[in-house]
Design brief:
The complex is a heterodimer of chains A (100) and B (206). Chain A is mostly helical. In chain A, 68% of the residues lie in helices and 0% in strands. Chain A has two domains: 1-62; 64-100. Chain A has helices at 9-31, 38-57, 65-89. In chain A, α1 (9-31) packs antiparallel against α2. Chain A is flat. The relative contact order of chain A is 0.08. Chain B has 206 residues and is an all-alpha fold. Chain B has a single domain (2-200), classed as Four Helix Bundle (Hemerythrin (Met), subunit A) (Up-down Bundle). Chain B contains six helices and no strands. The longest helix of chain B has 37 residues, at 125-161. The radius of gyration of chain B is 19 Å and the shape is elongated. Chain B starts with a helix and ends in an 11-residue tail after the last helix. At the A-B interface, α1, α2 and α3 of A face α1, α3 and α6 of B.
């Protein structure tokens, strides 16, 4: 019955330490001035941390393909939300409005 | 049994996707107003306590580890392992909320809570007020999720004490774990976006 793959404790500890190190990286990067790149770097590190949690702690790597598709689709829809909203707000000033 | 676990996991993920979209809407508000008022966002961020934010990030990462180990203990039918790790998770989650309480208290004392008592002598006060509205909305709803998570962990703890879980059946532990990790992920994004966004521009909190 119990044919599940049990992740060794060591894997969890390695991911845990990586998450702490990446938190320190986020902090150190934030205190340096990279101009416009500060936020993209912070987001890239956050995305990496979130991916580690999803793949290892939440064990998505052992889930069925259907669950994986749902997980990816969830984040994909989030980017559609961000993308289409910004597509509106960031382009409003591009064209003149007649009568204004 | 395997199929039941798979179905439950899928169902939980569908719920978590709705949670992603729920928090996504608030993150959208954050992005939009940050683009409109970049200076006010940096000024507002400087009022937040980076040390406490970093501490809470560490606390949540620790709690995610203990949660993962609790699920693992259930998978290997260790009652003791489940109890120890679930208690640790509850304690770490509570620590997070206590630190959050002191942070909120500081904001009240410094008149940084949006409303009639907001310190309007600050530069760009109206826009900073907006930053703090979004700060309290995001962190407040995140904290509410933490409280729900802690209650959930108590339920799982009682079930674990009654020997309800083993390698043959541990679905509730697994499902609650997914929720707990999700709340951790939200904070992973909140910490750099709220606390660290202006740290390189010479922080002087107040």
């Amino acid at each position: 019955m119990s044919s599940h793959i049990v992740t060794p404790v060591r894997t969890y500890v390695v991911i845990f330490v990586s998450l702490l190190v990446l938190t320190a990286v986020t902090y150190l990067v934030a205190t340096q001035d990279f101009g416009a790149m500060n936020t993209p770097i912070a987001l890239a590190v956050a995305l990496l941390k979130a991916s580690l949690v999803v793949i290892y702690f939440m064990g998505v790597r052992y889930n069925t393909p259907l669950t994986k598709v749902v997980v990816i689709a969830g984040f994909f829809w989030l980017f559609i939300l961000f993308g289409l909203t910004l597509n509106d707000y960031l382009t409003r000033g591009w064209l003149g409005v007649p009568g204004r | 049994m395997d199929q039941q676990l798979e179905a439950s996991t899928l169902g939980m993920w569908v719920f978590l996707v709705t949670e992603i979209m729920f928090f996504g809407g608030m993150f959208m508000a954050y992005i939009l107003y940050r683009i409109l008022y970049p200076e006010a966002w940096v000024l507002g961020s400087h009022h937040l306590n980076v040390s406490l934010g970093a501490l809470n990030t560490g606390v949540l990462i620790c709690s995610s580890l203990t949660m993962a180990l609790a699920v693992r203990s259930a998978q290997v039918s260790s009652r003791k392992g489940q109890i120890v790790n679930l208690v640790l998770t509850i304690l770490l989650g509570s620590t997070f909320l206590v630190v959050k309480y002191f942070e909120y208290k500081e904001k009240f004392e410094h008149h940084l809570v949006p409303g009639p008592h907001f310190d309007m002598s600050l530069p760009q006060a109206a826009q900073q007020q907006l930053f703090f509205s979004i700060y309290f909305m995001l962190t407040g709803i995140h904290a509410a999720h933490m409280i729900v998570g802690i209650v959930l962990m108590f339920v799982i703890l009682v079930m674990a004490m009654r020997n309800r879980f083993s390698s043959a059946y541990y679905t509730p532990v697994e499902i609650s774990g997914l929720y707990w990790h999700f709340v951790d992920i939200v904070w992973i994004f909140l910490f750099p976006l709220l606390y660290l966004l202006g740290a390189h521009l010479g922080a002087h909190g107040g």
